[in-house]
Amino acid sequence: MQKKKTVLDFQKMKAEGEKIAVLTSYDFPMTGLIDGAGIDMILVGDSLGVVVAGHDNTLPVTMEDMIYHTKAVMRARPNAFVVADMPFLSYQTDLTSARLNAGLLVKDGGAAAVKIEGGVNAAAAIAAITEMDIPVMGHIGLTPQSLHRMGGYKVQGKGDAQAEKLLEDARAVERAGAFAVVLEGIPMGLAARITEELTIPTIGIGAGPHCDGQVLVIHDILGLCSKYSPKFVKRYAELAPIIAEACANYIADVKGGTFPEERHCFK
Predict the structure, then answer these.
(1) Residue 256, CA distances (Å) to 14, 122, 244 in order
(2) Catalytic residue list contains 184
């Protein structure tokens, strides 16, 4: 069994060149499986709005949703470091709300850290929360809560001006006190440049192999999400047809009267 991970471990892993493996999780049983496999970090992502709740994007996710799912994850007592997403409107309106909501994810949800989308525009919130001794992970590039401004889920940082803006976003996140930053949907050369410049770990998703770590959505790597299939996802299993077949076999057994058998009954 691995020892419980802390922010100090991730700084050491970057220094020593050891890659950081991150997956999302939203519930008790999946967390037990992921943690048992030896994952370094678990993200309770607001992606649950899409892959669990069925929304078209992450914007409808509430603080209540995030606290509920973070609590479920923490009941598995993971040794992985658990980060909870700050949902839309939980930190953008004012710093008092940002501090309060981050505190609730730690105090009530049980998370060890929170994640905030945004660079220069989120630096004040990151600084305010880190001043409370709550670790913050940044998130720049393709930030799903900004999909309307970006015109959808589009790769960011392609031109020189966009690349320079993302570099400044990365620097702002680091200066504000974040312990790590997610780089999403950006060219791999730019991600490599950011990773080399920053002293904090970079966690890539659709940002190439040169980041200090990688994160993917658990439903994506298991083949459980049919709503979309991003280019950056590698599917390690195709569980959807296996689950569908199991359900079909159960229905057939019930309809045919072959379940339950005597061994499934009490006497």
Answers:
(1) 58, 59, 18
(2) yes
Angle (nearest 5°) at CA 137 between 83 and 103:
60
Burial zone of 8 (CB within 10 Å; 0-12 exposed, 13-18 middle, 19+ buried)? exposed
Instruction: Give residue 1's pLDDT band: very low, low, confident or very high (50, 70, 90).
Output: low
45, burial (CB in 10 Å: exposed 0-12, middle 13-18, buried 19+)? buried
To the question of pTM greater than 0.90 for the whole model, the response is yes
Neighbours of 251 (CB within 10 A): 11
Give the torsion through C-alpha atoms of 48, 54, 57, 60, to 10 deg: -80
Please state, in angstroms and rounded to a whole number, the distance separating the CA atoms of residues 263 and 266: 8
Helix ranges, the chain (H): 7-16, 28-36, 48-51, 63-74, 95-107, 123-130, 147-150, 160-176, 188-197, 218-221, 239-256
Catalytic residue (one of 184, 196, 197, 262): 184
Q: For residues 160 and 69, what is the distance between their CA atoms, to the nearest angstrom? A: 39
Q: Give the pLDDT band (50/70/90) at residue 230.
A: confident
For residue 213, the number of C-alpha atoms closer than 13 Å in the C-beta half-sphere is 26
**C-alpha to C-alpha distance for 98 and 92, rounded to whole angstroms:** 7
Distance (Å, whole) CA 25 – CA 70: 9
Q: Is residue 141 helix, strand or coil?
A: strand
How many CB atoms are closer than 10 A to CB 89?
A: 14
| Model pLDDT for residues 82-136, shown as the tens digit of each residue | 999 999 999 999 999 999 999 999 999 999 999 999 999 999 999 999 999 999 9
Q: What is the pLDDT of residues 39-63, one digit of tens each?
A: 999 999 999 999 999 999 999 999 9
